[in-house]
Amino acid sequence: MKSLLLLALCALLKYAGAGCYNGSDPILCSDPSCGGSCTFENGCYCAGDIKLCVPTATECPMEDNSCCDNLVSWSWDESLKCCSEADLCNPECFSDEVCEVVNNKITCSCNASTYKGLEISDLKPSMICDSDGITVSLSKCQLTQLGYNYSSFHIIDDSILCTYTYSDVINNFRVESIKLRTTMGWCGNIVSKVNSSKIFITNTLHIDPNMGQLITRNPFVYNFTCEYNLTMQTSLNFSPYPVLSSVILPSQGESGSYTIILAAYSEATFTVPIQVGEELKFGSNVYLGLFSPDMDGNLFALKVEKCFASPTSNPNDLYNVVFVSGGNSTNGNILTTVIENGNSTEARIQTNAFFIQGYTKVYIFCDARLCNKTSEVKVCELTQKADSSRLKIQLNLGKCLRCLQIKYMQCFQLKYFQCSQKRIYHASKYNTFIASK
Ligand SMILES: *[C@@H]1O[C@H](CO)[C@@H](O)[C@H](O)[C@H]1NC(C)=O
Ligand SMILES: *[C@@H]1O[C@H](CO)[C@@H](O)[C@H](O)[C@H]1NC(C)=O
Ligand SMILES: *[C@@H]1O[C@H](CO)[C@@H](O)[C@H](O)[C@H]1NC(C)=O
Ligand SMILES: *[C@@H]1O[C@H](CO)[C@@H](O)[C@H](O)[C@H]1NC(C)=O
Ligand SMILES: *[C@@H]1O[C@H](CO)[C@@H](O)[C@H](O)[C@H]1NC(C)=O
Ligand SMILES: *[C@@H]1O[C@H](CO)[C@@H](O)[C@H](O)[C@H]1NC(C)=O
Ligand SMILES: *[C@@H]1O[C@H](CO)[C@@H](O)[C@H](O)[C@H]1NC(C)=O
Ligand SMILES: *[C@@H]1O[C@H](CO)[C@@H](O)[C@H](O)[C@H]1NC(C)=O
Ligand SMILES: *[C@@H]1O[C@H](CO)[C@@H](O)[C@H](O)[C@H]1NC(C)=O
Known about the structure:
The structure is a single chain. By secondary structure, this protein is mainly beta. The protein has four domains: 95 residues, no CATH class; 111 residues, Immunoglobulin-like (Sandwich); 160 residues, Zona pellucida, ZP-C domain (Immunoglobulin-like, Sandwich), CATH 2.60.40.4100; 32 residues, no CATH class. The chain contains four helices and 28 strands. A six-stranded mixed sheet has the order 18-26-25-20-21-22, with no helix packed on it. The protein has a five-stranded antiparallel sheet with strand order 16-17-19-24-23, with no helix packed on it. Strands 9-10-12-11 form a four-stranded antiparallel sheet. The relative contact order is 0.07. It binds 2-acetamido-2-deoxy-beta-D-glucopyranose (9 copies). The site of one 2-acetamido-2-deoxy-beta-D-glucopyranose has 4 residues, from loops. It comes from Engystomops pustulosus (Tungara frog). This is ZP domain-containing protein. Pfam families: Zona_pellucida.
């Protein structure tokens, strides 16, 4: 008797399912008294009202079951373009899911048969190691099957700032993902440098078992590592407080703008960034690297037009010394080599820790611009000062005990230099520049 009734009910449901919702509460969005519409963010509402409505035809941009959220157990019928009573999952479920009604909502749930016999050792997170982030993902249904709570997905640091988890679809499976920044120390990131060309970044994924019933499982713990090439750019992420400056450069034409970064490095590989507060050794080389992380090297090149040093943060300081001009070394007071410029998305300049007497800091200013590779006949040779932008970094100088001594010594050695000016002296032996007030 009971089963007969059930059968009859099923038949009724099926029959009813063939038609569109045509009730009055909630009202149809198309009803003249409603004039409603739907949005991805808020769902379906009557015009200027907080009244929920049910869409038909083209009123619902989502075109899936979320259009019918204002009804209990109705689904979006793609052919009828309305909410119908057939139990259909729309969008369709993935291969490890089944469509069923849960809490009066038509939902894709995990198919318990798909992962029968799955072991914890079978859980293999998928990883994407990009320069702008590391994405770690795990199948939601696999986690559910093994009794894990995918909502508890977290890394070493489980504070709210570090929990960038979200739902995604990878290879036609629903996954829970977390995105990490590729920055040293960020949310427990551990950085290890293996050699001069490779760097590893490691963190740990933790997923708790479902609470409630008997806890029979330990948390799922998985160490993951991404390998990166050590470059001018990545080395900045992998050092704690690199000295750097960034500026947004407008590009010619309609294709937006680009970030340019200026950083200082202590080695010719341009992969050992100088740190904020680090005291530069007297006479040591300083490698200035400029790059654009998001620029297309086929379309643009980066050109440094001018670089100069100043004892103060004022770019118009009287004691400024220009060491790159027109994109080339000035071969002046500060021994400088322009290694690469105007030919790629990077510029490399080797200069020197020059000392300005009485100051413990030196500010370096560089004016850089983008060259459009297709429009400039000889790439970057034209000087277009108008659209260049200025970058500024500050370097700390160690105590210069020998500066005075060198100053006098150099007065005898360097004939071309005007000692009488009593302002600027050059010590070629130490590649050191001294100015005194
Ligand atoms: C919806 O219902 C109303 C009244 O109940 C009826 O007049 C109308 O024809 C129905 N519309 C459709 C499309 O079935
Ligand atoms: C659930 O998975 C099993 C095993 O893969 C399969 O045989 C069954 O058809 C699936 N159920 C649904 C409703 O897709
Ligand atoms: C650096 O280490 C990586 C990974 O261990 C290796 O593939 C590469 O050849 C090494 N490079 C150098 C220059 O030693
Ligand atoms: C799953 O994890 C979330 C976030 O940690 C928590 O709020 C929720 O209570 C957990 N659910 C179960 C069943 O353990
Ligand atoms: C995972 O990394 C942690 C350090 O973050 C380490 O203590 C632990 O032994 C590692 N576990 C495995 C299985 O490698
Ligand atoms: C890393 O460096 C190697 C060797 O120089 C190169 O073949 C590879 O494409 C680089 N990888 C990335 C992601 O830049
Ligand atoms: C580069 O210049 C060419 C010719 O002036 C122009 O057609 C093109 O849009 C420019 N490219 C970009 C990316 O601005
Ligand atoms: C800059 O150097 C390049 C290559 O050494 C040379 O061709 C060019 O003429 C120089 N430009 C200026 C303005 O000195
Ligand atoms: C520009 O780059 C290309 C390819 O990397 C190289 O062959 C060429 O010598 C470079 N030109 C200059 C002026 O640096």
